[in-house]
Amino acid sequence: MTDHREPSFVPYRPPRVPIEAGLHRGRAFADHLDQRRSVRQFSPEPVPREAIELAVRAANTAPSGAHHQPWTFVAVSDPGVKHRIRLAAEAEERRFYRERDVPEWHEALAKLGTDEHKEYLDVVPWLVVVFAQKQTPAAGRLRKNYYVNESVGLACGLFIAALHTMGLATLPHTPSPMGFLASILGRPPTERPYILFPVGYPAPDCRVPDIARKPLAEALIFASVDEARQ
Predict the structure, then answer these.
(1) Peptide bond into 172 cis (omega under 30)
(2) Tens of pLDDT, residues 23-54
């Protein structure tokens, strides 16, 4: 049955920020995020549950297709469950690194020094698995969600930024295939694993690859009207 209810609107009047103050905020935010790195060496130091809650609150502000918010964040701190996830992830990664014939992908990863060993999945205090909801139960039926990948990706980006703002580190880990995560965590068939995030503080001796980010001149183009018409 189609819902023909009229849309409801409320006033939106965010405070107007003077341009110089806004640019100052923008520079500070860009500089802050430029310090963020994905890490694979974590401290076992505890991280309060509230930090995870705050990061997911930030993720929940992401725009999404039809405002369906098609994501579920599952947070795990139980050592036994984390270990099961590690063993299953390493099994998939072992097949990737040793058996799958994807030389270009292996070459691209070589500069990061990664392999099938994922000890950090045991060490880190939290694992947060994000699931994408292909469909969502609603009003006694399954409602289709739209632009699921785009929506969940936006939410994950805000989740990462929130963690960094709190001084925490993470790594978007995507062992493929990831079906074992749905099985271990008891998620319904309407959801599929999207990203596995270890969350914690970097280890005191943490090291990261010596790599640089794409310069702004390569990431941004201001297209002229004439160029857009071509």
Answers:
(1) no
(2) 999 999 999 999 999 999 999 999 999 999 99
Nearest alpha-carbon partner for 163 in 15, 54, 12, 14: 54
Confidence of residue 229 (pLDDT cuts 50, 70, 90): low
Residue 174 sits in a domain whose CATH number is 3.40.109.10
What's the rounded Cα separation, in Å, for the pair 69 and 63? 8
Range of the domain at 66: 40-203
Beta strands in the chain (DSSP E): 71-76, 126-133, 135-138, 141-144, 169-170, 191-200
Residue 175 inside a domain? The answer is: yes
- How far apart are the C-alpha atoms of 48 and 91, rounded to whole Å? 30
Sheet holding 71-76, edge to edge: 71-76, 126-133, 191-200, 169-170
- The total number of structural domains that make up the chain: 1
Residue 94 lies in a domain: yes
Phi, psi of 142 (to 5 degrees): -95, 120
Distance, in Å, from the CA atom of 38 to the CA atom of 43, rounded to the nearest integer, reads: 14
Helices 148-165, 49-59: inter-axial angle, 10-degree rounding: 140
Task: Tell whether 14 is covered by a domain.
Answer: no
SS3 217: helix
